[in-house]
Amino acid sequence: MLENLALFAWxxxxxxxxxxxxxxxxxxxxxxxxxxxxxxLGIPYALPPVGSLRFRKPVPFEITSDRNVxxxxxxxxxxxxxxxxxxxxxxxxxxxxxxVLNYAPGEESEDCLTxxxxxxxxxxxxxxxxxxxxxxxxxxxFGNAESHDIMGARIVKRSVALGTPVIYVAMNYxxxxxxxxxxxxxxxxxxxxxxxxxxxxxxSWVKRHIESFGGxxxxxxxxxxxxxxxxxxxQMIGPDSGENKEDLFHSAFMQSxxxxxxxxxxxxxxxxxxxxxxxxxxxxxxxxxxxxxxxxYPILKAAVDKSPSVSDxxxxxxxxxxRADGEFLKDNPQRMTQRGLVAKVPFVSGGVDDEGTxxxxxxxxVTTEEDFRQYVHxxxxxxxPIEELDPLWTLYPSIPSEGSPFDTGNNNTFLSPQFxxxxxxxxxxxxxxPIRFFLQSLxxxxxxxxxxxxxxxxxxxxxxxHGSDFLLTLMEDYLIRFAVRHDxxxxxxxxxxxxxxxxxxxxxxxxxxxxxxxxxxTQRADQMAFLTNLSLAYPL
Length: 540
Fold this sequence. Notes:
With 540 residues, this protein is α/β, with parallel strands linked by helices. Helix content is 33%, strand content 14%. The longest helix has 24 residues, at 419-442. The N and C termini lie far apart (76 Å).
């Protein structure tokens, strides 16, 4: 009798706790159903990059035995970044809740290379739904997939409501020094851009396995915002110089990011040397990279946390970024874009009107004309002869009405006399100019669409700040349509026209949440042209 009761209890427990299953090779993985979405979480796609695998390219891993995949894995190591705007405005300080910029929560570990899949309930291999692969942002310094769990589930449910179901995928990848170490020895050992290699391996995993989850391996869209969007653009270049030989993706959606003006990986030597000094690895006659590999994790992490972050004075001139290494990135990404060495897939690329305001907060000590000129030269154009920067001082004048937040007259000058000028320059040099260059370089070669959000324009100081389109979930219906049909239009809203060099039209989301309009992408033409030429000549 007792044996029968025990068996019955076991049966009930198994029946009511079993989740959705997927067969991967010879293994069965079991996920979890939650709020009309099936989730498969924390699936390893690479061996843990620890010990001798630290600072090396990811090594593929395949599950070979049954397991539950019902919770997220740890975040990759997060660089300590502090966002402390200023006192005096709750509205402005609220930007610290921006998931694009926020330090990712939860457990951290170097053993972090996992991937997560969400699909509509009762999806099977026969469904072959389009796939959206999310690459998170975070200034190449922080971020994780778990932070976007609610967003991923929302996209899956919204796609079902629209009658066009999609599958959502997000991976963890290494960031900061763990993913983007630079320097001569890194170049010689061919271990640069590890975060991009992580993303690439995850995309290969998706290509190989997504049909088992009910996805279409021939209809994969990669999507990102901020450094995630930059990552998408760099995946479009990729180690095969844009040929996309592995057929890893078929469309792309980029919010506030494109190929950026970065130079050779040896330009990161000073940051490499900083780590050596902080960790005691700066000893003559030793293999310094091996020294960093065998360090206890807390020692290395503490040193990384002392390196410059996006919230520091140097702001968007980041210490740990992708750089041309001759392998993943054969050359300066903008040069490769100029030569058309980009995957020939349809894409959307756009941003927000005031990309630079969040980043201008960290340089409020720039208050005079001399300060501004010194900052631009030392931080963003250290290799350019000072006289070559003369046009920039008039292209970005010390006139508040011409600064960012744009179209706000003389308002928003209470932070610093140079704040709006600094914000305009930083937003253009890192975001707006590269986006326009990307679009115009590839015009006529493949289908493309562009947008600009002006929503939240009248938020004090920040305006339509970096990441605001993401916070407002502004683009989600458009990206679902683009993943499904490679066209953001739905046939009822104002038509979103394709972007061409002859007619560079952008979809404009207005300040007051009204009906979108269409405008030519011609604002600040002289400024964009100057910054593009400057970055091509003197990449960071």
